[in-house]
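pasting for ref
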Amino acid sequence: MELRTGGEVAQFVTATMDDLVELVGQLESFMLTPAFMEVFGQRGDESTADAEGIVQVANRLMDYHERFLERAERCRDLDVPARYRGLARDCLQLLIIPLDGYEVFIDDLVEFVNDMPAMMRYARGAVEADPVFLHMNVDDDLMKRITKQVRAAAKS
């Protein structure tokens, strides 16, 4: 996508940030729904887990991942004048935060699944493990820098 004026760049970045906030909110809401939590069953009773539901939840989580990836790719492919390239880079860095969060989440989940046979082999009775979380930590300095650059671009 080619953007030529500061106003166009500012508008794109602002819309992208708004879209990111909305998408993160949708993901959080989804992960906090009873339907999401119930597929894993009651704590300590694996017989109440819903294998098909877990697959559906995993697919939905990956749909959100794909949406985050699409937004990052759209930002990465921006063609902007040289004076707005720093803003475009910062916007991309902001969009990579959810992708980094997913990467850590998936790595943690894979590690947990790999550890399960050993836990089951040595455990007695119900096994309770720490939950695996999907974290997205926004860099406040990055947000301030983007906001400052957007204001400047909008004025130019």
